[in-house]
Each structure stands twice: as C-alpha cells, then as structure tokens.
Amino acid sequence: MKFSYWENKTWLSNIDFVVVGSGIVGLNCALELRAKQPKSKIVILEKGLIPHGASTRNAGFACFGSLTEILNDFDSHSPLEVYELIQKRVSGLKRLRNLLGDKQIKYRQFGGNEIFLQHDTEKLHNSLAKIDDVNKLLEPLFKEKVFVIKKNKFNFQKTLENTIFNKFEGQIDTGEMMDALLNKAYRSNIRIINNVSLESYEDIGSCVNVCTNQFALSCNKLFIATNGFSDLIINEKVAPARAQVLITKPIKNLKVIGTFHFQEGYYYFRNIDDRILLGGGRNLDFQAEKTNEFGVTETIQSKLDELLKDVILPNTKFEVDQRWSGIMGVGNKKTTVTKQLSENVNCGVRLGGMGIAIGTSVGKDLANLI
Ligand SMILES: Cc1cc2nc3c(=O)[nH]c(=O)nc-3n(C[C@H](O)[C@H](O)[C@H](O)COP(=O)(O)OP(=O)(O)OC[C@H]3O[C@@H](n4cnc5c(N)ncnc54)[C@H](O)[C@@H]3O)c2cc1C
C-alpha cells in the first residue's frame, strides 16, 4: 500500500512503541506506556475491525476461582503458587475497578455459586472436606471466610441441594469495560490501527522492523499482547484454547441472579440484561478446541442446550438468541508469560480464563518491562 506524506508522517513513522493487540492487556499496556512517557508516539495494531480476541467475547465474571477450580490447581501448583495466583486476581480486579469505575463497567457483586450435578456427590464431599483449608489459605487476603455452604435456592434441577457460595465474586458488562478502555486510549492520544495483522518482526538492536499484512513500519519497542494467537508469531509456551458460549433472549421474571460455576469451572453461567449467558464444555473435546479459529460446534452447543433445559431453566420458557466463541491463551501452568523476548521486544500473554481479573495488571507489567 502506498501512503501519502501525511499518512506516513502522522501515523506510521517515528513510532516509539507499537503494541500488538487491543484486548485488555494491549490497551492497559499502551495506557501505562503513556503514563510513563507522556510525549511518546504509541500505536496499537489490531487485526480485528474491533478488538477480536477474548476481551470482547468473554462471560464477564469478575472472579478469582471457584472452590473446585482452586483445589484442582493444587495438582499442578504449590500452595504458595496457588495463593499468589489468587492474590494477583484479587489485586488485578481492584486495579480494573479503580481504573474504570464500577458504574462504567456495571460491576455488580451478586456473589458466586458453585453448583454440583447429582452424580457429583463425591466431588462435593471431597470439596467440603477441604473448604476450611482453602478458607484459611485465603484469610490474609479477605480477612473472613470466602467459601460457605448454602442451600440451592434457584430451583436448579438434577443438582445437589448444597452449593458453595462466595460473596466476594462479581460480574461486569464486558462490552462496557472494553468500550471504556478504548475511550481512555483514544483520549490518551494512543492511535489504534484496525484491520492490520502483525505477520513477523525483526529486532535489529537499534529498532524493531515490523511486517504486517498491509504495510511495514519500524518502532523503538514492540509489545506483543496477542494472547491466544501468540503461537502464530512468537515461540512461547502458550496454546490457543477456544471457549464457546450462548446467550438466551430476555426471560421474564428471571430469578437466576449471580455468577455460577460447575465442574471445576469448565461450565459457567450468569444473568445479564434479563438473559442467561452460559459457556463451557471445552473439556468435551480438548483437541478440537485447541485452535485459534473462531467457531461453534454441535458437540459443545448441544451440551450447553441440554444443561440450560434440564438443569438451569427446567421450568422456564426460553429461546437461545446468539452463540459465539472466543480464543484464550493457556499453558501447563496458570501463570502468565510476561517477559522480554529480545532487546526491544516484550510479551504479556497466556491469561487463561482469568483475563478480566489479571488483564489490567498484566498490561501494566508488560509496559514496565522497559
Ligand atoms: C468465552 C470466553 C469466556 C471468558 N470468560 C471470562 C470471565 O468470565 N472472566 C475472566 O476473567 N476471563 C474470562 N475469559 C478470559 C479473558 O477473556 C481473557 O483472558 C482476556 O480477555 C485476555 O485478554 P488479552 O488482551 O490478553 O487477549 P485478547 O483479548 O484475546 O486480545 C488479543 C488481541 O490481539 C489481536 N491480535 C491477535 N493476533 C494479532 C496479530 N497478529 N496482529 C494484530 N492483532 C492481533 C486480537 O484480535 C485481539 O484483539 C473468557 C474467555 C473466553 C474466550
């Protein structure tokens, strides 16, 4: 593409910082760079017409892990690592809420509920055996019990009577959060160029040469915030993981209010705008979902339909309105990969299913690598 003198001068030359990806991490990285270097020229390259990864496609849980999810994490992390993961999520959520404000992101703390299907008696029993240990581990963070046993009051069917309630869990409006972040970026004179995909880069020491599907440019420092798409451009231990969701049409007198998890967080649902948003089922076909192609599948969507009809809304008329997917970045550990890759190139990726909680901090940490 041939650019005019003006296009070149204003947008595409003398760039201090290029950030790749305008998800929650890329936007926070750019905002932190602006705070560090008020006069710098910052450009975000985004392959979508709007941000098009996980940050605009998630479920909007402002959470830090259900009890079974946390217990599961002990299999692959030490108790200290588990504590640090939760600490990061809790402080990241505070940072997000302070940055954008609860009103703006429609933060509501209805509490989180973990429910157990009828055949999960043993799982509930095992979780309850360890609930005190986990509460004790989290005491320094919350100063009171996080997980308590409660009776299921939502008329779910095919579930056990006892649920585990966490009053500290909240929910946000994902679209509002991303819109607020984008507006902050625009107001901070951060230029976002959409529909441009980074294909490769070369750090030549004095600068980084960046090659996109539309044009080439140079910058002083490059920041990669492409999460689930990162394996296409960098060689780090981050794999794509597609997650599918559906949303119902509005339901009159909807009584299901809050955030809900079951099966170690592999399924989750919440109320939003008088609707139910339900997601999960990646564990039904890990191999097929290890992809950075968007799409929904019959296997997973029919399971979500079944759960909605038989478990969540058994006595309520509803219609599914929309189905979609998003791409997460995962690895064998739940820690992020936030590091310098070469003299002038840095990355902040692998946020798993907790990007709302940790994305703001990861973006800031990424910017602070320089
Ligand atoms: C269905 C679903 C439900 C989820 N639910 C929750 C939840 O309830 N709570 C929670 O905390 N987390 C949840 N998550 C996870 C959370 O959304 C992510 O962890 C978080 O959004 C990751 O943010 P990010 O900025 O790192 O990546 P992304 O938001 O994926 O941003 C990466 C951006 O980079 C762009 N990009 C990629 N490659 C290139 C390239 N080569 N050139 C230019 N641009 C590129 C993409 O288009 C994208 O906009 C969910 C995820 C999904 C998919």
How would you portray this structure in words?
The strands form three sheets. Strands 1, 2, 8, 9, 10, 11, 17 and 18 form an eight-stranded mixed beta sheet that branches. An eight-stranded mixed beta sheet has the order 5-6-4-13-14-15-12-16, with helices on both faces. A two-stranded antiparallel sheet has the order 3-7. The longest helix is centred in the first third of the chain and has 22 residues, at 79-100. Helix content is 33%, strand content 27%. The protein is of the alpha/beta class and 370 residues long. Residues 20-26, 45-48, 51-55, 57-61, 197-198, 225-229, 233, 243, 245, 279, 326, 328, 351, 353-357, 359 line the site of flavin-adenine dinucleotide (FAD).
Query: What is the structural class?
Result: alpha/beta
DSSP helical segment count:
10
> Are any ligands bound, and if so which?
flavin-adenine dinucleotide
Indicate the proportion of strand residues: 25-35%
- Could you tell me the mean pLDDT? 96
Q: What quaternary form is this?
A: single chain
Q: What Rg is obtained from the alpha carbons, in whole angstroms?
A: 21 Å
Number of β-strand runs: 18
Biggest beta sheet attributes = 8 strands, mixed
Shape: globular
Could you state the order of secondary-structure elements as H and E? HEHEEHHHEHEEEHEEEEEEEEHHEEEH
Estimated helix fraction: 25-40%
